[in-house]
Amino acid sequence: MRTTTAGCSFSPASFSSSLPTYSATYLPSNAPAQSEQGQAGTNQCGSGANQTSECQNAYINSVDDWCIFAPPEPGPDSVIGNTERIEVAWCLKSGYGTRVIPDGTVSGVYFVQTPDYVQITGVGDLTKVNIPAGDAGGELDPHGADGNGNPIGGLVFSSAFGSLAQMHEWTNYVSATEFCFRACKDGPDAPTLCQHIYDEMGCMWNMPANYSPGGFEQCQGDSGEPMGVYGTSTFYQGQPSTPSAHAAPATSSCTTLSSVGNGLAVSGSSILSSATSSGASATLTSASRSSGASGVSGSATGSATNSASAGYQTTSFGWEQTVMTLGLGIVGSIFGAVMVL
């Protein structure tokens, strides 16, 4: 039996069949306001960042440029099972018109690009993106029970394979402490490598990979085996015996970062400022004031020294100006007296 879902047609019984066909392909620049009926948010998101954004466009580009879907509002009722239809995009990077993931939320994240998909896995305190503490989470994908997706109208994009493109097949698991997101490049194996029917199995079973806290890494990797497929057999959720997860696919050419973040000071639904940007601006400003005398230093010590030098120069200039003003006053008085005589 053939199933048509969310603009795509494929056969779930024969996991690797003909190339799936898609009824619509978008970019953020030409997406409609809403790509599915019943959509709560929007796909016309603009740029920048907004902590009350209803944007439902997500991106997976690199270890420091990715998004997840999470609830739009906080509260004990915002568990993924209740909000899967209305989730919004939360992104690590500003510029997509989405909400930004507050710095300090993510304690470890691992990005892998394979020939067939891009993937992020990680851990953190996802209560900061409105997932209630203790929520075991759930699975989000472009299909859902009615073919409109969870969230309805959610779109995913990536520039990892070249130009920015829509990724029609994807699967995203989120809980209060863990997340994973895989987006598959269009191709005959995309529906199987981004299979969405194992919503109760969680991240580590569906996407075996590194989930260690304290690491921030970007790697190339092998595509590995599709979730649920074991040779010629296919496991279906709910069967009496659940097989173990596949081994994590091999990775290589890894790059390690010390941390990831956006430098934005976020408080509730407000973005107050950019701590990093304002600090850099203050340093640059103080350094430029004294660059004529002592140059610009890139170090913190150098910046402090330059600031002190700038202050000293300003003080010296004020003293000299005072003396000059008094001197001109005396000369003016003498000249006036001579003219009277």
Morphology call:
globular
Read across the widest sheet, the strand sequence of neighbours is 10-13-14-9-8-15-18
Number of domains: 1
**Tell me about the biggest sheet?**
7 strands, mixed
Helices, by number, come to 6
How many DSSP E strands? 20
- In N-to-C order, the SSE pattern is EEEEEHEEEEEEEEEHHEEEEEEHHH
Structural class: alpha+beta
**Spans of 5+ residues with little confidence (pLDDT < 50)?**
1-17, 276-326, 330-341
Residues in β-strands, percent: 25-35%
Overall mean confidence score, pLDDT:
81
What is the rounded distance between the termini?
Answer: 118 Å
Helix percent band: 10-25%
C-alpha Rg, in Å? 28 Å
